[in-house]
Amino acid sequence: MRHLVTLVAFDGVVLGDLSVPCEVFGRARQSDGCPFYEVRICSLTSRVRSEHVTLEVPWRLSSIRRADTVIIPGVENPAQIPPAAILRAIHRAIVRGARVASICSGAFVLAATGALDGLRATTHWQAAPELERRFPAIDVNPDVLYVDNGTILTSAGAAAGFDLCLHLVRRDLGAEAAAAVARASVMPLERSGGQAQFIVHEPPTNDGTSIARLMIWIEQNLRDDLSLPALARKAAMSVRTLSRNFRAQAGMTPAEWIARARVRSAQRLLETTRLDVEQVAADCGFGSASVLRQHFAAVVGTSPVAYRRAFSRPSGLPK
After folding, report:
1. Over the stretch 103-141, which tens digit does the pLDDT of each residue have?
2. Among 24, 82, 178, 203, which residue is least crowded by beta carbons within 10 Å?
3. How far is the C-alpha of 138 from the C-alpha of 115, rounded, in Å?
4. For residue 108, what are the CA distances in angstroms to 21, 40, 130, 143?
């Protein structure tokens, strides 16, 4: 009997999140060439509406009762959780030990069952703050492509659904089978970094406080001496007061915030110039390229060179 994968469809379902598992699991083959998965799309009713089309869904929620893996795709509006009957069906699958995975904003649906309480999880980086606000018992990590808690998995937005599904194929059938699916889908088996490299960081805003003014000054003077005593003098505070106020407003120490500001500056230079990594490091206030690489990997999850390949303009970059 083949491994049954059920995809739960509902009004407002994200079509891309629904189609990716069909593509990945539908291509997976055992060593003898036979399909390993049976894929079913199921729903509470025979029709579900997405943003662009109305879908005819062939299977009902009863398919979840014997599913080995349940996939929850994203929902266009995370504030609109699917009907209680769908949540109950997913919860029963979790209780009996089925593997359940969400893609993108499907994490909101999975979270509504209570299954993510006390676990690490991810979702699209734009939706991560809202997931954290609505479900404070979840340890939300917006930087990664997916989180594997064993039988409960979550993935980030859009293409991260591919990463999650390929990861499941690799768990079930091994790296060779997963690599074959990746090649057929024209996807890498593993992507460097996580979704931290895609996050847009807004610059600090001047709300009139001394810390906000200091943050703006720091971003404009990243090559200066930004030691804690130097910053304290700039802010006309004691080192202890500055540290306390900075952590209260930024949620991190001044050193951590400065490292992130320098990494953001490096990202902009890697995207918009052809400066070598040593010069980028110097322009951003890092002591060397090796220090830049260390902080870049910690914040963005990939290397400066890999980031430039992914995000730099194809031509016409200024020197």
Report:
1. 999 999 999 999 999 999 999 988 999 999 999 999 998
2. 203
3. 9
4. 18, 22, 9, 17
For residue 99, what is the enclosing H or E element?
A: strand 99-102
Cα end-to-end span (Å), the chain = 60
**Nearest one of 123, 38, 23 to 74, comparing CA atoms:** 123
Which residue in this structure is represented by tokens 């991560």? 128
Q: Read off the pTM.
A: 0.65
pLDDT, averaged across the chain = 87
Our measurement of the distance from residue 112's CA atom to the centroid of its chain's CA atoms, rounded to an integer in Å, reads 19
Q: Which two tokens stand for residue 30?
A: 């055992």
* Burial classification of residue 121, based on how many CB atoms lie within 10 Å of its CB (0-12 exposed, 13-18 middle, 19 or more buried): buried
β-bridge pairing 146-148 and 152-155 = antiparallel
- Quick one: tokens of 38? 């049976």
- The pLDDT score that the predictor gives to residue 189 is 54
Q: Would you say 156 and 104 are in contact if contact means Cβ atoms under 8 Å apart?
A: yes
Tokens for 31, please give them.
Answer: 């060593």
Burial 269-308 (b: 16+ CB within 10 A, else e): bbeebebebeebbbbbbbeebeebbebbbebbbbbbebbb
What does each C-alpha distance from 50 to 16, 112, 150, 152, 179 come to in angstroms? Answer: 11, 20, 30, 25, 31
What residue ranges do the domains of the chain occupy? 3-195, 210-311
- Give the CATH number of domain 210-311; options: 3.30.70.270, 1.10.10.60, 3.80.10.10, 1.50.10.10: 1.10.10.60
Length of the chain: 319
